[in-house]
Amino acid sequence: MTVEAKTLRAEPHVKIGSVIQRDAGVVIDRWSRRAAEEQPHARRVHHDALLDHLPAFLQALGQSLAESDDAEACRHCRPARQHGEQRWEVGWSLTEVVQDYQILRLVLIEYLEEALDRPLRSREGMAIGLALDEAIAASVGAYARENAERARKADEALRQKAEALQEANRRKDEFLAVLGHELRNPLAPLRNAVQVLGLRGDDRATVDWARDLLDRQVCLMTRLVDDLLDASRIASGKIVLRRERFDLVRVVRETVEDRRGGIAEAGLTLSLDLPPIPLPLDGDASRLAQVVGNLLQNAVKFTDRGGQITVRVAGRGGARRAAVVVQDTGIGIEPDLLPRVFEAFVQADRSLERSRGGLGLGLALVKGLVELHGGGARAVSDGVGRGAAFTVWLPLARDAATPAAPPAPAPASVPPLRILVIEDNRDSADSLKLLLELYGHEVAVAYSGPEGVQAARRRTPDVVLCDLGLPGMSGYDVAAALRDEPAAAPVRLIALSGHGSDADQRRCREAGFELHMTKPVDPDALQELLASPPSA
Q: What burial class does residue 478 get, using C-beta atoms within 10 Å of its C-beta: 0-12 exposed, 13-18 middle, 19+ buried?
């Protein structure tokens, strides 16, 4: 006789269902112990059996067998699905999930025959087998769905990562091309100026023109390199803020005034809206001046002649924070570019001629430096041709005390000094010697570390300007050797290096240098340093 599953489900088996519900804990204990013996992963999971879905599953299974008047009901299927999901999460294989139910089938039949003190009837055994088969189907189905969903998510994550890597590689290639372009731009006029000086070096007007050109282009290249180094330091968390209390209004005013001439030369109108009271802030004044300068440079770059730039500063949120807004009437920002405008190497000008220039680092530095101060930055634009507004906000100092503006430094007056330059790059050493001699100093040059130490022993200098990356004997070794010389105790040691990280500067101080100056050295800054008393 054929037995239909629908009919079998509809038959109530009150006695065995009641026993399963009543003694679920005993069944679980026996199931767990046997599973731990026969399943490689079961010991770990069944150890916490009373905390997972096994009790709910056995209660639902007992109820399904005892009250099977609803042929379509499958009360035990839901906890069975949870059983399958749980086993997937802890690393079971599909075979182990099925075997777990096979162990339960044997434990359940053995226990029921023991509790009822009789063998199970044929229909009872068939009902239990059908219910457990349904549980296996539900559990395996959940396991398979979970597996498929995890696989889909893993595939999606891999796809997104591959796309991100492709985009990063594309941006890297684009950045290298832009970097080459931006570095060649100042090199071309530098080479032209050198050639012109060779042809007309006796003409004063030509010399003045070439000097101004060389100064502008060297400043441009220095700024490009500084931006690259700052971006790297921010990304690696190696930038250190030199915090002090200062007035944000004063810093913005001075930064804007320093750039007012260049903005006027670009044919742009500048307006400045500042509050009448100071806004005290604890932070690095020079870095926040760099932030404002980068925003102004960005506005100038992307605003055509005849345009307007507006700078506003205001206190917000009950004066708990300050906002600096730089708004322009320039070319605007494309909607797809707006969310990424503060990312490094993102370029608004993607045309072949790249008339706007730049490395795409200025705004990334703005965001990074502002966030180091506990603030944030955002950009707003109504689209192409509609201008843009960049806002940075910064937390104000908790108390209102604001230091007075520092007095303007007096012009440096430097008495003639005996200076020893130790530098293995002959062009760099000889040009610095000539510059210092024009300033009125007596200068000697050594092209290696040992040669420099010998020169200092022959005649003790007032100041030693020493490169760090010297062959054979590093600048640090030179400093150590000179500090061991009693006669050289009062000598001022100043390090010159292309490496300018905070770690480099700290190592210089530990080696005995008074100060570290990053190449290319600003002649005015060097002259000011020579005029100042030695630091402690």
A: buried
